[in-house]
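Data card: per-record layout.
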Amino acid sequence: MTAPRTPKYQVIAADLSTKIRGGELAPGSALPPQKELSARYGVTLATLRQALQQLEADGLLSQQPGRGTFVAEPRAAYRLDSLRGFAEDLRAQGLLVATQILGQEVAEPPAWAAARFGDRLPAVRLERLRLLAGRPAVHQVSWIRGTALARADLSGTSLYAALADHGVAVHRASESVRPGALDEATAILLRQPAGTAAFLSERVTYGLDDRALVADRATILGTMLEIRTERAVTGLSVQWAHLT
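The structure for this 244-residue chain is written out next.
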């Protein structure tokens, strides 16, 4: 019995995927025009576009109307269901992550954070900018119960690790993420036009006594990160994926 032939678009997708993963086509580089590629592979434009769409769905290509098709940066996943910090999860997967401290001072928490703490006692306001491979990707404002971390160096240390160093154990966290867009102030920090797609995250971290330890709000650049899920009979894994 003759084995079924592999569709031509899958053959093209496999060839381009091998070249991308092998480094022959570097991240950020442009593919030749579609007419040139279709002639090179001896297929119609429709067949070629089917292959390009598959590679874009796989996260290997980015098709930009009016500009062309570009090789995407390798993806790295960040687990939302982990109790590690944002930067630690991405670093664990080989991504270069840097943190800029934009502000760190004792202040009275705003109403949204005080509501999580159950009081308006002084707390540490920590404002950070997260850079992925040197590019701003996340703006994060954290309110930390108490004043113990007011002078701690948090530029290269996990907030959770710093809490542990002060004898405070993290027990659990809850997080909600919704779609949004960059406002003008955050757009300047992230070096993007106002209105650029973003994820708006609100996370509350609790201690062993179930008191809120950290109330955190983050604006995550939607053009650099996406939410990805993997479903199995044993449960659901939710991750961030780095796009560019």
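Known properties of this structure: Residues 8-71 form a domain with the Arc Repressor Mutant, subunit A fold (CATH 1.10.10.10). Confidence is low (pLDDT under 50) at residues 76-81.

See the next section for split statistics.
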